[in-house]
Amino acid sequence: MNYLQRGSSILGIAILVGGITTAPYAQQVAQTRAEDFYNQGVSKTQREDYRGAIADLQRAANLFTQQRNPANAYKSKAVAIYLQLVQQRLQPTSSSQSLPSWYKTGKCLGEPTCQYAITWIDPEVEKTAFGGILILEKELRMQKKPDGSGQAVQAILDVRVLPKLRPEEMLNSNCELTRKADPQILAIVQIQGFEDRDLYTKVRQAWRANLSTEKIDSFPTTNITCINPCPGGC
Predict the structure, then answer these.
(1) Of 180, 181, 184, 200, which has the fewest beta carbons less than 10 angstroms from its beta carbon?
(2) What is d(CA 165, CA 128) in angstroms, rounded to the nearest whole number?
(3) Is the peptide bond between 231 and the residue preceding it cis, with omega within 30 degrees of 0?
(4) Phi, psi at residue 81, to the nearest 5°?
(5) Strands 199-200 and 203-210
(6) pTM
(7) What tens digit of pLDDT does each residue of 28-57 get?
(8) How confident is the model over 80-108, as pLDDT tens digits?
(9) 215 vs 136: CA distance, rounded Å
(10) What angle do CA 90, 73, 124 make, to 5 degrees?
């Protein structure tokens, strides 16, 4: 092998090695960038910068999609959609309007002041492998409107992606731990076979809004039951 041939071989090995070593680094940088946009977007809700938050979350959704990270892409997009609704409802001229079908339930936490809330939404759920998201929020202030009504201005603290619900299941927010009501617990329960019972006792997955850490924690399903609002049918 002459000098030129040997130099070309060495250069080829260097390029190959460089590609192997830098590709994971590039992926890590892209992942960090997506996470930064997501975290930045969520943090902007604490300053009531919903427009900026929506833009950051949409960027995060696009980057997560490019990285083939569907859970985080869906989470980012769903939060952005929710904030668009929040932004609309905070407009001074907006009146009480019906909520979209993807807004499933909202629950006040932290009685008696209702300082926190947890919300379940499932936008575009039919297009995804997920069952929506849980959003833990904290009230910043109450905004008064010209008609005398008020609208809570809230910051997002934490978000959890839910698994797809099966036809025989529901997400229940009226649950008990060891027969004692715990409003901070939400659980996916099986309703089929429990239509005539007062309690749903078959729990697939549960979460608890931890108001001390301001996080939504996965929670053991042991000793959790949830109340059937209409035993025997409403």
Answers:
(1) 180
(2) 12
(3) no
(4) -65, -40
(5) unpaired
(6) 0.85
(7) 777 789 999 999 999 999 999 999 999 999
(8) 999 999 999 888 777 667 899 999 999 99
(9) 7
(10) 65
